[in-house]
Amino acid sequence: MTSNAQASRNVIFNGDCIDVMQAFDVGTVDFILTDPPYVTRYRDRQGRKVANDDNGRWLRPAFREMYRVLKDGGFAVSFYGWNKIDLFMEAWKTAGFRVVGHLVFRKRYASSARFLRYEHEQAYLLAKGNPARPGRPIPDVLDFPYSGNRLHPTQKPIEALTPLIEAFTQPGELVLDPFSGSGSTLAAAQSLGRDWTGIELDNGHYHTASKRLAAQQHHRAAA
What we know:
Distance between the termini: 34 Å
Shape: globular
Number of helices: 6
């Protein structure tokens, strides 16, 4: 594995994100957008699970590496499980991130219903150092179309991710997703002319994401 930032562009690594990121140089990533396991032992209606969702041992070391590889003055957006916010917040702050914003993604459907109908997802905007403010700040409430979860049990819609990448990066900059799943972040970055790097532990999802990005690239080239 190489630590050359240029060589890691527009590829997906199949492996543990902590191990993979340790081979990256300091400050070589412009923006991080990721949807890590929520540490909730999630199981969807089809019985599908998420790797490492049964423990939080990876939280601190993973975000420590994310902070290290992110450029000074860069942003990271991390989804999180609301009922495990204490674990996530501790990991973010211990790594060195500053919490500078909160995002809510409104759904037109309930993903589940217990004491409430759960009709939103949430993420925090994290900063390394003192980044410049975006020229046109986006709202902190965004729409979250239903993805169908066909490719992954917690698949995020590209439409909810593109405004974030557009706001916090410029064309040609590098977007990292260390928990890339089916590749939604990477597909959003590619559609906007950004470079991307993905890391996915699950071999099946790694192949799904690889095929998805290749098909999108082929479609763009043919258009």
